[in-house]
Amino acid sequence: MTVRWTELAIFTLLFAIVTGLGVYAARWKAGFPLDHLDEWGLGGRKFGSWVTWFLISGDIFTAYTFVALPALMWGAGPTAFFALPFTVLAYSLAFLPLVRLWSVSRVHGYVTPADFVHGRYGSPILALLVAVTGIVAMMLYIAVQLAGLEAVLRTLGLNGAGLAGHIPVFIAFVILAAYTYRSGLRAPTLIAFVKGLLIYPVIIAAVIILPMKLGGWGAIFDAANTKFTATPARGADILSPQSGGILLSANDQLQYVTLALGSALALFLYPHTLTGALAARSSNVIKRNMVALPAYSLVLGLFALLGYAAIAAHTHPIVNAATGEPDSNTIIPMLFEGQFSSWFAGVALGTIGISALVPAAIMSIAAANLWTRNIYRAYLHRGATAAQETQQAKIASLVVKLGAVVLIVLLNPQYSIDLQLIGGVIILQTLPMVAIALYTRWFHAWGLAAGWAVGLAWGLTMLYDIPNPATGTGHLGDTGLKLGTLSILGWHPFAGSPTQVYVGLIALIGNLLVAALVTIVARPMRIAGGTDETALLDYHHDTSSPQLEPVTSG
User: Which domains are assigned to the chain?
Assistant: First the structure.
């Protein structure tokens, strides 16, 4: 494949700019030296409304938004629109819980959600479960970002076979690792400003120019409808339309609703989104952001529609030279390449690349914080100083990113969206320990641990047993399960039903039921459930409160 030198030059220039910003970020808004997790991992906990808006939007709207989601629209049609209600629901659901988490974290100096769980239940075991779950989910999510970045690089002409084909991603990994190691959370926060300034002009230009070139939105929707009407359903594969058109069939509607709700519940359980919230300087900053962030959902919807535009433009994915299979993640990069001038395509591809690097950096920092606070300090070096904690976090951030690179090398990037959806099923199982615990401590600690184990095991088993017609394998085909195949200890309550439902929500229901049953048994038996170090008023403090722990203490 020929290298597209103009686009590559613009892409490289944008990368050079953000790399410079990442290195400079170590001195941006610096208060204390970056040898404390409050500074390196949470940016000094002093980001205002605008900075927080760019930070949280930067780690929510990722390569999943700008690469995988439109590719899903191109391949599956209406199913992909679950992302719109999901983001709108997420801000409403998270508004009050995030405020409570920010307050109690500032009172007690919590850096991670696992810190809160440890304090709430006095249980290092529960904290360990939350930490491990978060790290695994983050690694899967970082892999999605790197798959999106690799799709952009492949479009630019860097599409080698074998390990050589992954060299550009390794280079991007080194750049990302270098400025994250040096500057911590400040680096992706500062770069998120560049991403925000670029993404709106790119998408606005695209949704105005593309319809003009393709005969209008009516023609675009007609082309999509023609494609999906002619495409036969291939079973429970999210990459296959079930409706035969651009409307959901009756069998898909429950999956659409449960996938949107489950994804909304999961979004602010991810450690990277909580890291962005904990970096805010006040609870009012979080409130303003929860009100303002839905504006980004407009961008999400417009980008998703580009999947239909790619159908009308007869855009085809690039064949991955490393696997010999088409890479659906290249659909949107190829759409820009085929429909716009070289310089604009270069800007668009650079923007998508930056949109992958920003969240990948935040995710690696969030995972590093979990490792340092809830594994290293809790089990390996209890007397660790603040400087030793920070050094561990820096090293852990490198390891997590490297693990994500290995996932990309070993797995076909065709399934990048599946990696994110699987991560959602996993992280959703921490909801009782994190989100519900912000309001009540009714669940017993052992009940929460049992519920987590059952929910995770059941969720992963259901995921594994869903066939994947796209690859001809019998496993990991989707996160939508046919109710007719749902088995509860051998009992099939919906036998014969073709209606699909989101696996993550089913697993969460099982999680909650088991947690409740164990709690009901454990309470009368007076089994020790740990000590709560938080108090009712801890969940309502703001910056004016003298109870807040000073930043960078201890």
Answer: 33-416 (1.20.1730.10)
